[in-house]
Amino acid sequence: MVFRASILTLYPEMFPGPLGTSLAGRALQRGDWTLETTFIREFGEGRHRLVDDTPAGGSPGMVLRADVLARAIDAASPEDDPRPRLLMSPRGRPLTQGFVRDLAGGEGAVIVCGRFEGVDERVIEGRGLIEVSIGDYILSGGEMAALVLLDAVVRLLPGVMGNSSSGETESFENGLLEHPHYTRPALWEGRTIPPVLTSGDHGAVERWRRAEAERLTRERRPDLWSRFSNRDD
Ligand code: SAH
Predict the structure, then answer these.
(1) Which residues does the record give as S-adenosyl-L-methionine binding sites (predicted)?
(2) Mind listing the pLDDT tens digit for each residue in 99-139?
């Protein structure tokens, strides 16, 4: 089973974009995942293929029309499509490594990229869109957010990253931020590598890494730290 991504966008030329290079790009070429774009404008109204209109109730900006978007969704994703239908949206559930992992274990995703002030609420309900946010800031469109989500998912797909992606110590995988890394040269601008890392004592290395991961999480992410220290495993 190959992960299938379908993107609905007004800017199909933004895909695969950066996902056409490096790990994700090679995986795409190998056929480890597929990417398909649907140009929302093709489902627009009338000769001018209109996709947006002014907000009901008045306010500046434009809103993506429910009927237009629904036609595009129905063309990209049949009713019995097993893939989740996502809408990139600052109001959505925050994208987390856990959610990324769930997606990577599934058959793919249908991803709607919003533009303007957003999309008509009725299409979110009518097509069961799950709103997903990549953080508390406003982008000009959902395309970059979709690229971020797919980058995070694709690197977890079987065969894409070899052994390093499943690393249990990677930030968030065990509820902690990752420990610091060092490599040669042993001495750089007067800075040394913590001696424990070159001691050859694997147990001591593991304990040091664990302590550093906990310290960094406590200092930088009190939110993660309180969840971690209250965990019941
Ligand atoms: N008026 C909206 C923002 C619209 S931004 C509001 O205040 O909530 C235009 C589009 O960019 C959105 O429809 C969404 O698809 C995308 N977008 C903006 N910020 C995002 C974020 N943090 N995460 C995911 N998508 C985002």
Answers:
(1) 114, 134-139
(2) 999 999 999 999 999 999 999 999 999 999 999 999 999 99
CATH code for the domain defined by 3-154: 3.40.1280.10
Ligand 1 centroid to Cα of residue 132, in Å, is 10
The pTM of the full predicted model, rounded to 2 decimals, is 0.96
User: 149 CB less than 6 Å from ligand 1?
Assistant: no
Tell me the domain boundaries of the chain: 3-154, 168-229
Q: Which CATH superfamily is domain 168-229 in?
A: tRNA(m1g37)methyltransferase, domain 2 (1.10.1270.20)
Mutate to test the pocket of ligand 1, among 86, 110, 138 (most ligand atoms within 8 A of CB): 138
Measured distance CA(195)–CA(48) in Å, rounded: 68
Q: 117 is written with which tokens?
A: 């002030």
